[in-house]
Design brief:
Elements lengths: L1 H26 L1 H4 L4 E3 L6 E3 L5 H12 L2 H13 L10 H7 L11 H13 L3 H14 L3 H16 L1 H4 L4 E3 L6 E3 L5 H12 L2 H13 L10 H7 L11 H13 L4
């Protein structure tokens, strides 16, 4: 009986971590964990995020709330009704990043609870386990490992704006996802139609992520005005990583 109970607890913990990580990657990672670029001010290279870094937010909130129950309660309340009066950060940070958009309706109450529990108990641990699995798999299947590395590049540098759901739009009775930039698949399909060949596609990606320019953009003034011009990722990846990312994007939605 003890063994069964222990197995159940361990299994439940694993499911919570996996589900919580998936919810985090969908709704939070785009701003709080995705590297948008680098800052070389003062000769020190630091990552640039779209909001305070997730681990810093979690550590700060734990210090403020003291208990797990208060931590979970804060998260569930804040993601539905963000307010600068509730914020852990001052005016300077809010002015820099803006106030977090409400995620009300983007997830169920149960999902919000799973996310909050994951942030308190599991955040960082699952990422470490995932990285360990990636390292182990590389010795068995080099191609598979490279594909995972490419996916990581996409998730780190592109998904935050082009694939992460920031909220939902219910205008006209139809629910559509809201992204921080044109949806990745739409961009890729449009670029394939424009460039015609894989070589031209890869060349465009490699050039544009280093030196984005509205004159090169696939989209018109209306879209650029809505989303803004993509920030340069120059220096955020090696030349080889950029090439691997471009190749990966070309085949990403083929299946």
């Amino acid at each position: 009986m003890k063994n069964i109970l222990l197995y159940t607890l361990l299994t439940s913990s694993a499911v919570l971590a996996q589900s919580g990580e998936a919810i985090f990657n969908t709704h939070c990672a785009g701003c709080h964990a995705t590297i948008l670029g680098v800052n070389e001010a003062g000769g020190k290279v630091t990552n640039v995020y779209g909001a305070p870094y997730a681990k810093d937010v979690i550590d700060k909130l734990k210090a403020e709330t003291k208990t797990k129950e208060a931590f979970v309660g804060f998260i569930k309340d804040y993601i539905n009704e963000p307010d600068k009066r509730k914020s852990l950060y001052g005016e300077k940070a809010i002015k820099k990043f803006g106030l977090m958009p409400s995620l009300k309706g983007a997830m169920t109450d149960s999902e919000a609870s799973i996310l909050a529990e994951y942030l308190y108990s599991e955040y960082g641990k699952t990422s470490q386990k995932t990285e360990e699995k990636k390292v182990a798999s590389s010795s068995n299947d080099e191609n598979s490992a490279q594909e995972k590395a490419n996916e990581t590049l996409f998730n780190t540098h592109c998904a935050g704006c082009h694939a992460t759901i920031l909220g939902v739009n219910e205008v006209g009775g139809k629910v559509t996802n809201i992204y921080g930039a044109p949806y990745a698949k739409d961009v890729i399909d449009k670029l394939k139609a424009e460039t015609k060949t894989k070589e031209a596609f890869v060349g465009f990606i490699k050039d544009y992520i280093n030196e984005p320019d509205k004159r090169k953009s696939l989209y018109g003034e209306k879209t650029i005005k809505k989303f803004g011009l993509m920030p340069s990722l120059k220096g955020a990846m090696t030349e080889n990583e950029i090439n691997e990312l471009a190749e990966y994007l070309y085949r990403k939605y083929d299946q």
